[in-house]
Amino acid sequence: MNNTRFSVAVHVLSVLCVSDGEPVTSSVLAASVGTNPVVIRKLLVMLSKASLVSVDRGKAGGARLARPASEISLADVLDAVVTSNEMTKMHSHPNPACPVGKSIASVLDAIFSDGFEAYRSVMKQHSIASLAVSISK
C-alpha cells in the first residue's frame, strides 16, 4: 500500500495538538509534513467532515482540533481518511478460469476484513494526546 494519508493525518493532528488551540495554517502544516499545502487542505476537509478539526478561513485562519486530543483515537483518524478497501485492495484481474483466480478474491476479502478490524482495534487504543506525549519525550 502506497497510501500515506493516515500517517500525514496523524502528523497534522499531532501538530494541532501541540499548538495549544492556536490555529495553524495549511502552509505551516505542510512545512512540518514536508508536502504541498494543497495536500494538507484536502486532508483537512476529510478531517473536518469527521469532526476532528475545525478550520477558520481567511487571512488569520487556520486549523485547530475540534475536540480534546485525548478524545481522538487513531481509529477515528483512520476512519476519517482511509477505507478498509483501500488498505486491503485486491489485484484487479485474477483469471476466473483458474481455480485459484476464481476464488482468491472472496477468500482474501474475508481475511483482509479481519486484518483491518484487528488493525483498527489497535489504533483505537491510542489517542492523539498520547502520541503527542510520546513525541515530546
Short description:
With 137 residues, this protein is mainly alpha-helical.
For the structure shown, list the relevant keywords.
about 140 residues; 7 helices; mainly alpha; 2 strands; about 55% helix; two-stranded antiparallel sheet
Low-pLDDT segments: none
Q: Tell the overall outline.
A: elongated
Q: Could you give the count of β-strands?
A: 2
Strand order of the largest sheet: 1-2
Helix content: 55-70%
Task: Quote the beta fraction.
Answer: 5-15%
User: Please, how many helices?
Assistant: 7
Q: Over the alpha carbons, how many angstroms does the gyration radius reach? A: 18 Å
- Gap between N and C termini, in Å? 30 Å
Largest sheet: 2 strands, antiparallel
What is the H/E order? HHHEEHHHH
Category by helix and strand content = mainly alpha
Rounded mean pLDDT score? 90
Written description of the protein model:
- This protein has 137 residues and is mainly alpha-helical.
- It has 7 helices and 2 strands.
- Strands 1-2 form a two-stranded antiparallel ribbon.
- α1 crosses α2 (26-33), α1 (5-18) crosses α3 (37-49) and α1 (5-18) packs across α4 (74-81).
- The mean pLDDT is 90.
Secondary-structure map:
Elements (H helix, E strand, L loop, with lengths): L4 H14 L7 H8 L3 H13 L3 E4 L5 E4 L8 H8 L2 H4 L16 H21 L3 H8 L2
Antiparallel strand pairs: 1-2
Helix pairs in contact: 1-2, 1-3, 1-4, 1-7, 2-3, 4-6
